[in-house]
Amino acid sequence: MTREEHNAANQVAVQQLKGTIDGNFPPKQFVAIAGGKIVADDADIDRLLAKLAALGIDPLDALVDQAGEDTLSELIIL
Prior knowledge:
Elements: H1 3-24, E1 30-34, E2 37-42, H2 45-54, E3 62-66, H3 71-74, E4 76-77
Antiparallel strand pairs: 1-2, 1-3, 3-4
């Protein structure tokens, strides 16, 4: 899968998962989405990146949303 395909799938997934993210994670919690699924979360972005690395996920193939934040303005593409 190309980076663009990863990004497109994750963009769709974050829209579908936004209610779950906001309802199940503390406000401001960073939540990583890769392969269209929530794969990790942490309050600290550097620890989140370390978790992605431990899972073998290239950060460039993931999106990060923050719980309780407006997805369109706060979405982080690593």
